[in-house]
Design brief:
single chain, about 425 residues, Aspartate Aminotransferase, domain 2, binds 4'-deoxy-4'-aminopyridoxal-5'-phosphate, aminotransferase, transferase
Length: about 425
C-alpha cells in the first residue's frame, strides 16, 4: 500500500506506528556508520602481503634502483599492467603516489596558475572559471572546485551519463573549462557512461579552447556482477574527434589494494603528459617507486588485478545484496523511495520524498546511525530537491550494515509520514 493512497486516519496510524518503531530504534543505543566508501578491514586483509613486499633484497626494477630518487613517470612494470586495464597506451600513463585525488587537485591547480597546453592564459586570469558537475556526484570533486573558487553548475547524472542536452548548452559559455565524470560505476549512482555519450562528449564543440574532461575512472575494475563493464575509450574517441588533449584520466589502486597506501595513475595525450611531467618535476624528485614495485610484484599482471577484484566482490557482493534486500522489504510497498542497484563501484543512491533527505539524516543521527550529510553529492552541498542519500555499504561488518539499513528505513518511513501529514 503506497502511503499516498492512505486516508488521513490511516496515515495518522501509519505515522504513529513509525514513530513507535523510531522510538524503539533510539532506545537501542546504536552506534553505526555508513558514511564513507572505505574498504573494510577484511578487504584490506586481501593485500596483507604488500606489507612484506618487495622484500629486503628485491629493489631493482629493470635497471632501476627503486629505493632512490627519480623517475617521475613511474615504473613501467606497474604502468603496463594498468595501461591494459585502463585502455591507455603505456607511454601515456604516469604512475604516481598514493592518491588520485591529489593528481586531480594538482592538475586543476596547475591549470589555474599556468593554464593547460591549450589555454590562452592561466585559468585564474579569466574572469571566472566554471565546471559542469553531473549530480549526484563525488563530493571531493566539488570540494576542489569550491576550494579554488571555480563556479559549479549541476546537471543531472542520468543512467548513461550526464544530461547531454544541458551539457551541450553549457559548453557554449567560454568560462566552462571542465566537466567532472566518473565513467564507470559512478560515485554515487553506479551509472556507467555509454559509448554514445562518451562519443558526444569527445566531439562537443566547446567555446573554451582549453576545455577538459576530468575522467575519474576510480572504479574501472570494481565489478559486482559477472558482467565486466568496459569503460568507454575516451582517449581514442577524443583523438578521433580532433580533440586529443581533451581528456584527463585518473585512477588508483586505493580500492584494489590499500586505500591509504596505493598507487595513483594519470593518463592523457602526449602533450598533456609532457605538461604534467613539467610541473610534477618541480613538485617532487620522483614518486614512491618502492610502493609501485611492490604493487607490480603483488598484482603481477592485468589478470592478477581482475582475480584480486573477484575476492573483493566476494566480500562486497553480500553487502550490496543486503542493502537492496532491506530497502525492498521495508520500503518497496510504500511508494516512498527509489534506489540504485549498481553493477559495480562502492555506493547505492537512495532517493526519498522531496524535502525529507535532511530530516532522514537527522533522525538517523539521533538514533546513532551516521549517514553522509544530505546534499553532499551536489555542488555546494545543496540538493535542490533535498531527496538524495548516499549509502556506503563497504566498511561496516555485514550485521552492522543490516542494522544500519533497518534503522535507516525506519527513519525514511517516519520522515515520509511526517511530510504526508504536514
Ligand atoms: N574518485 C572517486 C570517484 C572516489 O570515489 C574516490 C574515493 N572515494 C576517489 C577518487 C579517491 O581516490 P584516491 O584514493 O585515489 O585519491
Amino acid at each position: 500500500m503506497t502511503i499516498d493512497t492512505l486516508s488521513r486516519a490511516d496515515l495518522q496510524e501509519f505515522h504513529d506506528h513509525q514513530r513507535q518503531a523510531y522510538d524503539a530504534l533510539k532506545q537501542a543505543g546504536l552506534s553505526l556508520d555508513i558514511t564513507r566508501g572505505k574498504p573494510s578491514a577484511e578487504q584490506l586483509d586481501l593485500s596483507t602481503e604488500l606489507l612484506t613486499l618487495p622484500g629486503a633484497d628485491d629493489y631493482r626494477a629493470g635497471g632501476v634502483d627503486v629505493r632512490n630518487y627519480g623517475g617521475n613517470t613511474g615504473l613501467p612494470e606497474l604502468r603496463s599492467i594498468f595501461a591494459e586495464l585502463l585502455s591507455v597506451p603505456v607511454e601515456q600513463l604516469v604512475a604516481g603516489d598514493n592518491a588520485s585525488l591529489s593528481l586531480m587537485h594538482d592538475t586543476i591547480l596547475w591549470s589555474l596558475v599556468h593554464g593547460n597546453p591549450d589555454s590562452p592564459r592561466p585559468w585564474a586570469a579569466e574572469e571566472k572559471v566554471t565546471f559542469i558537475c553531473p549530480s549526484p556526484g563525488y563530493d571531493r570533486h566539488f570540494a576542489i572546485c569550491e576550494h579554488y573558487g571555480i563556479d559549479m553548475v549541476a546537471v543531472d547524472m542520468l543512467d548513461d551519463g550526464p544530461d547531454m542536452a544541458a551539457v551541450r548548452e553549457l559548453v557554449k559559455d567560454p568560462s566552462v573549462k571542465g566537466i567532472w565524470l566518473v565513467p564507470t560505476y559512478s560515485n554515487p549512482t553506479g551509472a556507467v557512461i555509454s559509448e554514445a555519450v562518451a562519443a558526444e562528449l569527445a566531439a562537443l564543440e566547446t567555446a573554451a579552447p582549453d576545455f577538459r574532461i576530468f575522467w575519474d575512472n576510480a572504479y574501472a575494475v570494481h565489478h559486482l556482477t559477472d558482467e565486466q563493464v568496459k569503460t568507454a575509450d575516451i582517449l581514442g574517441l577524443c583523438a578521433s574527434s580532433g580533440h586529443p588533449d581533451r581528456p584527463l584520466i585518473y585512477a588508483s589502486t586505493s580500492k584494489i589494494t590499500l586505500a591509504g597506501a596505493g598507487v595513483s595513475f594519470f593518463g592523457s595525450s602526449p602533450a598533456n603528459i609532457a605538461w604534467y611531467l613539467g610541473h610534477a618535476a618541480v613538485r617532487a624528485i620522483g614518486p614512491d617507486k618502492v610502493n609501485q614495485w611492490r604493487h607490480a610484484r603483488f598484482l603481477r599482471d592485468a589478470e592478477g588485478v581482475l582475480a584480486h577484484m573477484e575476492r573483493h566482490r566476494e566480500i562486497l557482493g553480500p553487502k550490496f545484496a543486503a542493502v537492496d534486500e532491506i530497502l525492498s522489504a521495508r520500503l518497496g510497498d510504500h511508494g516512498v523511495a527509489t534506489w540504485t542497484q549498481p553493477r559495480g563501484g562502492y555506493f547505492v543512491s537512495l532517493d526519498v520524498p522531496d524535502g525529507t533527505a535532511a530530516r532522514v539524516v537527522q533522525l538517523a543521527k539521533e538514533a546513532g546511525i551516521a549517514l553522509t550529510p544530505a546534499g553532499a553529492a551536489f555542488p555546494y552541498g545543496q540538493d535542490p530537491r533535498d531527496r538524495h542519500i548516499r549509502i556506503a555499504p563497504s566498511f561496516p561488518p555485514l550485521e552492522e550494515l543490516r542494522a544500519a539499513m533497518e534503522g535507516l528505513c525506519t527513519c525514511v518511513l517516519l520522515a515520509a509520514a511526517e511530510k504526508a501529514l504536514a
